[in-house]
Structure formats: C-alpha cells, structure tokens
From TrEMBL:
Organism lineage: Bacteria, Bacillati, Actinomycetota, Actinomycetes, Mycobacteriales
Originating organism: Rhodococcus artemisiae
Renumbered residue ranges of the record's region Disordered: 44-66
Cross-referenced InterPro entries: Fe-S_cluster_ET
Transmembrane intervals: none
This protein's UniProt keywords: 3Fe-4S, Electron transport, Iron, Iron-sulfur, Metal-binding, Transport
Pfam families in alphabetical order: Fer4_15
Protein name per Swiss-Prot or TrEMBL: Ferredoxin
Length: 66
C-alpha cells in the first residue's frame, strides 16, 4: 500500500496525524509532512493509514492498494 498527500489540497487541519500518528507526521507549519511524494505504508499500519485518509476533510490523501 502507498499513500500520497496532495499539497494543493492539504490545509493543515491535522486530522490525519491526530488519527494515525504512526503513519502521518506534521511539518513545522502544521501541514502533513511528506506531501506530493508517494510512500509505502509500513506493514501493520494499513488500517491506520486508511483511517487517517478518511478523516481528511479535503480528501488530500490518496491511498493506492497494490
């Protein structure tokens, strides 16, 4: 599984990293870190990644199930 966070849509609400801190991190400005880069979700964290993505009010997180 991979996830990508669209920097054009991310508004820095922080719901993703509040819901799934083992998957998402914030940058110094409160936006989700690692935007615009597809990255692998660590094994065992798939459900948390989905939960964080579903909590995003802008729909800025894309989950790709490989």
């Amino acid at each position: 599984m991979k996830l990508t966070i669209d920097s054009g849509l991310c508004s820095g609400h922080g719901r993703c990293y509040a819901m799934a801190p083992d998957v998402y991190e914030s940058d110094d400005e409160g936006f989700s870190d690692h935007r615009d880069v597809a990255r692998e979700v660590s094994a065992g964290h798939e459900d948390a990644a989905r939960e964080g993505a579903q909590s995003c009010p802008e729909g800025a997180i894309d989950i790709s199930e490989d």
